[in-house]
Description:
The protein is α+β, with helices and mostly antiparallel strands. The chain folds into 2 domains: 7-132, Aspartate Aminotransferase, domain 2 (3-Layer(aba) Sandwich); 134-233, Aspartate Aminotransferase, domain 1. The chain contains 7 helices and 10 strands. The protein has helices spanning 23-33, 81-85, 98-106, 116-132, 134-151, 180-191, 217-233, and strands at 7-11, 13-14, 19-20, 36-40, 59-63, 75-79, 157-159, 168-173, 196-197, 206-210. The strands form 3 sheets. A 4-stranded mixed beta sheet has the order 1-4-5-6. Strand 9 and strand 10 (206-210) form a beta hairpin. The mean pLDDT is 91.
Amino acid sequence: MRAPINALFLNAHETSVGHAYDLQATARFCVEHDCLHVVDGIGLFVTDPLDMTNSHIDVLILSSNKGLALAPGLSMLVLSPKAQARIVAQPRSYYLDLRAMLSDGARGQTPFTPAIGTILQLEERLSGLLKAGPDASIEQARRLTTYFRAGIESLPLRPYARHMPNAMTAVEITEPDLPARTIVDRLDAEHGIVVAPNGGKLEAKLFRVAHMGNLTTGDVDLLIKALKQIFQSGIRS
């Protein structure tokens, strides 16, 4: 007899390769097996559509950094009624006592001393999102994503994954003698532009560009101009 499935844990998109997962497909699996749908939405929160109801998400994991583009220091869980009903009375983890967190949250507190400065940043950020409407932030990221991916078409670069979010682009080098890590280092040293490198087997093949936070098409223009200069001057590992 097959053991029951209690929960499915996944990230909404894999930032190392820029692949966005099909949350509707994983939602159907969770509904079929009556298990919790636990989703790490840190990377694409407020940059991509994310609907807990439509995707049957029971636990949404968020953070102050990445999509919200604030300083690190806060982690947040958004729980559905179904998830709250399944919280055990005696948690196995002292630091993940969700009953204590919900109880403290009802009185406007946290179980432990929080990052006060980041909470104030979060309040300001959420106020701005509410004022502009959530779709405004998503549309900004979508425009930047489209603009960047169109801008690299003339270079020996291409998006690595077939299904990518608005939040970022994993960029593949299409010329094998042009190592990605050298591009990352030269962007930083020669142009003051920071993009994320990859590790392991993809270190020489990929680098990653974010489309989160307070970026503009002007920032994208600077990056594409710098990439063109690097490719024109030639790269050696």
